[in-house]
Amino acid sequence: MAPEMRVVAVTDDAGRVTEPGWLVLAEAVHRQLRPQLPEAYVSRLSGVFANGARMALVVDDRVVLSLAVWRLIENTYEGRRLYVDDLVSDEARRSQGAGKKMLDWLEEKAIALGCEVLALDSGVQRQRAHRFYFREGMHVSSFCFRKILK
Questions:
Q1: Are 37 and 48 in contact, with CB atoms under 8 Å apart?
Q2: Confidence of residue 134 (pLDDT cuts 50, 70, 90)
């Protein structure tokens, strides 16, 4: 039987954590993508939310299947965009539709917020994720250059 997946918004439109229990449950899945997150996960994420990020989860019962951390950005070359900081599905539960459900939810959210673009960056080593993004109609539009400052 397929899971009864649903999307849970962990934050409200102002970045306040409205689902603290879900935020705690999201940590293990989030660390699959970002193992370097500090031990004080909830505190760190609360700071990220205070600076514009939001979080949503795809869940089944009390299990986190997928999560996204996203934010609105308005720039000169695209206009308004919904930018996804993090998008990850639980490694043990991949290819069951949770990632697609999350990406579909993000697209609907972007449209509802008047965005012209849905965008994310993905590390060059994440070929499996890239195949998923291409299959979902995304494309590579530019290179991202970085210089580490500390």
A1: no
A2: low
